Amino acid sequence: MYGVSWLLLISIFAWRSRTVGMRRGFGEVMLLSLLVPTWAYFGASVGRVDWLPFKTEVDMRSGLGIACLLACLTRPSIFKPWRWMLADGVVLALAATHVLSDWQNSGFSLVVPVRAFGEWVMPYLIGRIVLRDIDDLRNLYPVALGVALALSGLGLVEMIARTNLPEMLYGQRPMEFMGREMSRWIFKRAYAVAKHPIFFSTMLLLLMPWAMYAASRVKRGGGPNWYRWTPWIVGAGVVSSVSRGPILALPVLFYVVALICRPRWRVVLSVSGVLIVLLSAWQFQTIIKGLEVWSGESEYRRKREIVVADEKVEFSGTRTRLYLPIVYARALREAGLLGYGTDAVTGFPPRVPVGQQYAETLTRLQFVDNQYVLMTLRFGYLGLVCFTLLVGTAVYDYTRVALDSRSGVAFTAGMAGAIVAVMLVMITVWMPRDFGYLLLWSCGAGAALRSSKLSQSSYEPLPYP
To answer: How far is residue 391's CA from residue 397's CA, in Å, rounded to a whole number?
Structure first.
């Protein structure tokens, strides 16, 4: 089914390239590729013959992105004009850190730069190419909105009917991430086209700004009246995963949007935000216990114990995120500038120094459910700084464009809020390709939109802080 989907999408790309232009066609098919499950791979072994030199599996977004980028090379004008932005340098620095870290820890290999390009640079570059200005936003939003609504619909059907429709076409999702029938409250946790419910709902967080933009157009007569309901539908899609992190991050998204778009409310919103943070810190243990009850963890499961910092502490799925920095404290201290490399953190437990006292504890934690901890273990302090600076720069780019523009503000402010929300979610989960591709794509688009704004002669730019 992977091959059929790839041929269909590449055919759409060829057709749209002829009718509306290659750059717009590229953007449309890459958005449509989000409908293909992330467990659908083009394997390295065909007929028991390893034919890919790097012996890996290529997902739909990577396979399609490579083909379309090669086609774009036949028309270099697609890459012009190009104004270098801070985010461009940061993503290149992140890819270079990936290469240096893996070479230092696993030895020299020409495959490593290819993987670094595919993991970091390619998604960013695609976003940088296909969404440059407000005209591109107007052209792409119908497709993006359709994808967001389709994914939300898949999630709601799965939650209520307990049936995953993509698995009927592409085969069953790998079991190593979670069981297929896991429930919370009385509902099945929807994962739709992703490998885990939290990955799926984080994808929808990053698609929410497209629905917000569609809804904003209704007021100006730029879309049908039902568009005003699309953010609610996508929000329901986020809820269909029944994942606490993305659901709690959804109000954060709208909070950031209000800060950007409502100048008169900023003082009240800022004070309210500080008070909420202080109250949350004061009642932290109460909140943790509430989240445990919300997750449906039984009293028995909450009373299990593990060893952390030489003490026995309560163990639950909620509390594991709190223990990670403590369990991996030694490894984090010794990570250095370049960390332990990709091979060391592939699989579980990671092959990093943690101390013998945590040997049993690691068998209970199962995953490194914190992107910032995992990034430090994998690529060291340099990797952590580059990654955090990349997403932080994207928030700044979108915020500046939202503040200095009259068009597309719902999208740019929404994207700033969505990336902030995802940054918070990543405290509780590592970043897979499921939503990582879309996050990096959005970072590239943010740099492109601000580059376009800076290039306007009437615009007086503010420097990066």
So the answer is: 10
Helix/strand number for the chain, H first, E second: 21, 8
Give the span between the Cα atoms of 183 and 158, in whole angstroms: 11
**Is the alpha carbon torsion for 346, 112, 126, 42 positive or negative?**
negative
Q: How far apart are CA 151 and CA 194, in angstroms?
A: 10
Question: What is the C-alpha separation between 459 and 436, in angstroms, rounded?
Answer: 32
CA-to-CA separations, 238 to 144, 207, 235, in angstroms, rounded: 16, 10, 5
The amino acid that residue 94 corresponds to is L
Task: Give the integer Cα–Cα distance in Å for 60 and 409.
Answer: 31
What is the pTM assigned to this prediction?
0.89
Distance from C-alpha of 382 to C-alpha of 360, rounded to nearest angstrom: 30
Read off the pLDDT band of 461 (50, 70, 90): very low
Q: What is the pLDDT of residue 259?
A: 93
Q: What is the rounded CA–CA span in Å between residue 397 and residue 414?
A: 12
Structure tokens at 300: 């028995």
Residues 303-361 have pLDDT tens digits of 566 666 566 666 666 667 777 888 888 889 999 999 999 988 887 778 888 766 666 66
**Cβ atoms 92, 121 nearer than 8 A:** yes
Q: Which two tokens stand for residue 283?
A: 């009642």
Percentage of residues in the chain having pLDDT higher than 90: 42
CA distance 170 to 1: 6
